[in-house]
Amino acid sequence: MGLVLAISGLHGSGKSTYARALSQAYGLRLVSAGQLFRQIAEKRGLTLEQLTEEAKKDLEIDKHIDGMTKREAEKGNVVLDGQLSGWMTKEKADVKIFFTAPDDVRIARIARRDRISFETAKKQTLVRESAQKERFKQLYDIDPSDLSIYDVIFDTNLQSMEKNINILKAIISEYLTEKAKK
Q1: pTM metric for this prediction
Q2: H helices within the chain, ranges in order?
Q3: Could you write out the DSSP letters of every residue in 48-67?
Q4: Is-contact 54 45, C-beta < 8 A?
Q5: In whole angstroms, what is the distance from residue 173 CA to residue 182 CA?
Q6: How do residues 112-128 score in pLDDT, each as one tens digit?
C-alpha cells in the first residue's frame, strides 16, 4: 500500500505547508481536505465563512470531503492534509501528526496568508473552528481537541521550518525502520 501520513492540526498551524514539504520529501501524493473545501466554496461562489454556515445545514459537504480522505488513504503513498485526517484514516495511516502553534502565531499566519487584518483573521478563525467542532461532534461524535489518536503532536513554532522538517523526517524514518523490521 505504501506510506500514508495523516496531517491534522489547527488552522494556521502550518499543516498544509508541512504536508506539502513531507509529500515532496517522500515522493508521496498530497491530498488536502482544506483545498477541497476551498474549491467547493469557490465553485458555489461562497466565502469560506459562508460555506462553513452552509455545511452546518448540509452535512453531506463534510461527508464528501471525509469520504475522499478515506479513499485516498486506501490507495496509499499519500500525505493527507485535513482537520480530520487522523480520525478518518485511523489504522490506515502509518503516522498521524497533529500540528499546533500558539494562537497569536496561528492568527498572524492566517492574516498574512489571506491578506486581512489580525482581528478579522481571529474572528473568522474562531467562528470556523467553533462551527467545525460542532459539526464533527454531530457527524461523527468526534471531539477534534482529543489528541489521543495522534502519534506525534508538533508545535511548528519551535524551530525554523527547515529544522522542523528535519525533526519530522527523523521521526518518520525511525518509524519506517521499525516497520521494516517487522
Answers
A1: 0.89
A2: 15-26, 33-44, 48-57, 60-75, 85-89, 103-114, 118-140, 161-181
A3: HHHHHHHHHH-THHHHHHHH
A4: no
A5: 15
A6: 999 999 999 999 999 88
User: What SS3 state is found at 12?
Assistant: coil
N- to C-terminal Cα separation, the chain:
16
The yes-or-no verdict on residue 51 having pLDDT over 70 is yes
Q: 118-140 and 103-114 are packed helices; what angle lies between their axes, rounded to 10 degrees? A: 110
- Per the CB < 8 A criterion, the answer to whether 98 and 151 are in contact is no
Q: Which three cell numbers stand for residue 174?
A: 525511525
Q: Is the Cα dihedral 19, 90, 130, 55 positive or negative?
A: positive
Cα separation, 141 vs 135, whole angstroms: 9
Please give the C-alpha separations between residue 73 and each of 5, 25, 70, 155, in angstroms, as whole numbers: 9, 18, 5, 24
Identity of the amino acid at 27: G
Identity of the amino acid at 63:
K
Residues 29 and 77 sit within 8 Å (Cβ to Cβ): yes
Nearest-10 Cα torsion for 178, 163, 1, 149: 80
CA distances from 55 to 26, 51, 146 (A): 34, 6, 22
| Mean pLDDT, residues 10-21 | 95
Cβ neighbours of 38 (radius 10 Å): 13
Contact 86/5 with Cβ under 8 angstroms? no
